[in-house]
Amino acid sequence: MNGGGGSINNVTIMDGIQNASCGADTYEFDWNGRRFSADWHIKNGGNTRDPIRCLRIYYCFDPQTQQIIVSDMPAHRRTGAT
């Protein structure tokens, strides 16, 4: 973002795919012996369990290591929309 102060929430990455805050669907997970909150996700589609129409990649940023940590999602998780 040029000049800072911008937002990465609900930014279109490519046609039909957005970066968005998880909001109320944020959840905790462990990685490398530490606890994190998956508070962002890359998404397409919406409010469906059909894997052809819906993708969510949950992640967070670790300021200590300066890395993006992607959470393992083996199945559809229950959210406020499901």
Essential attributes:
82 residues, mainly beta, two-stranded antiparallel sheet
Can you give a write-up of this model?
The protein is mostly beta strands and 82 residues long. It has one domain (11-70). The chain is 0% helix and 44% strand. The strands form two sheets. The protein has a five-stranded antiparallel beta sheet, with no helix packed on it. The protein has a two-stranded antiparallel ribbon with strand order 3-4. The radius of gyration is 14 Å and the shape is globular. The model has no long low-confidence stretch (mean pLDDT 79).
Q: What is the fold's blueprint, element by element?
A:
Blueprint: E1 11-14, E2 17-21, E3 27-31, E4 34-38, E5 40-44, E6 55-62, E7 67-70
Antiparallel strand pairs: 1-2, 2-5, 3-4, 5-6, 6-7
Q: Tell me the number of helical segments per DSSP (H or I, 4 or more residues long).
A: 0
β content, as a range?
A: 35-45%
Parts with pLDDT < 50 across at least 5 consecutive residues: none
Placed side by side, the strands forming the largest sheet appear as 1-2-5-6-7
Distance between the termini: 33 Å
Succession of helices and strands: EEEEEEE
Q: What structural category arises from helix and sheet content?
A: mainly beta
Give the assembly state of these chains.
single chain
- Quote the average pLDDT: 79
> Tell me about the biggest sheet?
5 strands, antiparallel
